[in-house]
Specification:
By secondary structure, this protein is mainly alpha-helical. The chain has a domain of about 60 residues. It has 5 helices and no strands. The longest helix has 22 residues. It starts with 6 loop residues before the first helix and ends with a helix.
Length: about 100
């Protein structure tokens, strides 16, 4: 441990990311990833259909690529849907506990 190293960089990554230990946050991010997957799939639809690399294999690869794009976007801040869903789920949980 170096005296000049910030404390945040010394902690394991799992402790600094809220979804790693909060199942509600994790589900909100998963929902956002699914939403983004649907939106990106429609954006990528029809791309490369007429080239020599088109076919069922290319379609499968593209769907996996879109899924990974959506997951990466959601895990790195997303577009704000996970934050809103997380807040709503916490409020619903608090209401159920009263």
């Amino acid at each position: 441990m170096d005296a000049l190293t910030p404390l945040a960089s010394q902690q394991p990554r799992a402790q600094t990311h809220p979804a790693a230990y909060d199942p509600i946050r994790q589900k909100a991010e998963e929902f956002e990833a699914v939403f983004l997957n649907v939106m990106l799939a429609s954006a990528f639809e029809g791309l490369g259909e007429d080239d020599e690399f088109s076919g069922q294999g290319a379609d499968t690869w593209r769907s996996m690529q879109v899924e990974q794009f959506a997951k990466a976007i959601s895990e790195n801040g997303g577009i704000g849907i996970a934050d809103q869903i997380y807040t709503e789920l916490l409020q619903l949980q608090e209401q159920a506990n009263q």
